[in-house]
Design a protein that fits this description.
alpha+beta; nine-stranded antiparallel beta sheet; 10 helices; about 25% helix; globular
Length: about 375
């Protein structure tokens, strides 16, 4: 079965007012449009265009036996349009999620409580592929030697001196843990502001983009300690078609641009700044991988003529990318999302669906392989 699905954009404040509308070829709504969810997540399930007007979370359990589809999708596919920086965040591993969810359930903490960390018992690794010419993100912690050079360039002051002291620890992970723990949990407002002010007024050829981002963040989130955390992170500028994979423990924040995002089916997010929402510093420090590393780029592998596969090696998801024409063997229940051109997706039964940019379809496993012609399409499916 191939059937078109749709959803309405989420109007989070950080959303772009033009990127999704431009992709879909329509006039902007006038409101921020941050994400469009294609999946069965109960927070915003997609709706099927099969005449039933049912949502995907209702449809899947009813058709699982007949189509080979599961009762729940193991992933959530999104269009994400950042017009302003998102919060710095980290996601737990599967084991950490199981333990944390059970702990908060036992404590009787309501699942919608503002101070709840674990909404479910699943991990939330994610991949984002840039659709805009440039997609800017913060991902992982920068090499410590480079971070020390950046901080050394800042004008002296109480906050900068304390930050330098924390970064002097011999072990890089210990240094970054100490610095972030201090910034989020112990630094006072004057110390944070002194660091931010020093960074905003510093000129550096090596770190020009990072310091410019500091100025942007200080306007969007004045006084937020997350601005200092961002100074310690890798700044990544993805070109169209490039991707990063964010596994458990990696601090990240999407800053600007349009992308296709796929993630495991979970709501577990712990925030580390650039937000008015709850920050549980102790729990955050327990989850973050503080080892500095290069940005977590994900290179696709060839998967047939006209097809490449972004596969991070996890069972939850993989993301095939088809340009103009290609055949995709489905590894289970799948979703196709068109991002350019007028695409036609044809299944093994001969059933077909036409998709304009920004439109998506459900592909049941019995339709494998599917052929895509005439456009650019991403196909979300379970991983290996």
């Amino acid at each position: 079965m191939l059937v078109e699905i749709s959803n309405t954009p989420r109007d989070y404040a950080w959303g772009s007012r033009t990127l999704i509308a431009d992709l879909e070829g329509r006039a902007p709504s006038g409101a921020p449009e941050a994400e469009v969810w294609f999946g069965d997540h109960p927070g915003s399930p997609a709706r099927l265009h099969d005449g039933s007007d049912r949502t995907l979370d209702d449809w899947l359990p009813a058709h699982a036996d007949a189509t080979g589809a599961p009762a729940r999708l193991p992933y959530l596919l999104k269009l994400l349009a950042a017009g302003a920086p998102l919060s710095i965040q980290v996601h737990p591993s599967k084991d950490q999620a199981v333990e944390g969810f059970a702990r908060e359930e036992a404590a009787g903490l309501p699942r919608e409580a503002a101070n709840r960390n674990y909404k479910d018992d699943n991990h939330k690794p994610e991949v984002i592929v840039a659709l805009s010419d440039t997609f800017t993100a913060l991902a992982g912690l920068r090499d410590l030697a480079a971070t020390r050079r950046l901080v050394a360039a800042l004008a002296d002051g109480d906050g900068v001196r304390v930050l330098r002291g924390h970064l002097d620890a011999a072990d890089p992970a210990d240094a970054l843990r100490s610095a972030i723990g201090w910034v989020l949990g112990e630094a006072d407002a004057a110390e944070v502001q002194q660091i931010v002010g020093a960074a905003a007024s510093t000129e550096s050829e090596e770190f020009a983009a990072e310091l410019e981002l500091t100025r942007t963040l200080s306007t969007a989130y004045p006084g937020d300690p997350g601005i200092v955390v961002a100074l310690l992170m890798n700044l990544v500028a993805l070109r169209r078609g490039e991707a990063i994979f964010v596994p458990a423990g990696v601090l990240h924040a999407y800053v600007a641009g349009l992308g296709v995002e796929i993630m495991a089916a979970s709501d577990n997010v712990l925030r580390g700044g650039l937000t008015p929402k709850h920050i549980d510093v102790a729990e955050l420090l327990a989850l973050v991988d503080f080892r500095p590393a290069a940005p977590p780029f994900l290179q696709p592998r060839p998967a047939g003529d006209g097809v490449e596969l972004f596969a991070p090696g996890i069972p939850d998801f993989a993301l095939a990318h088809v340009t103009e024409k290609g055949e995709v063997t489905l590894n289970g229940i799948s979703l196709a999302l068109a991002v350019a051109g007028d695409a036609v997706v044809t299944g093994a039964s001969g059933a077909r669906v036409e998709l304009r940019p920004g439109h998506a379809a459900l592909l049941t496993p019995d339709e494998s392989p599917v052929t895509v012609t005439g456009g650019e399409v991403f196909v979300a499916q379970p991983g290996d």
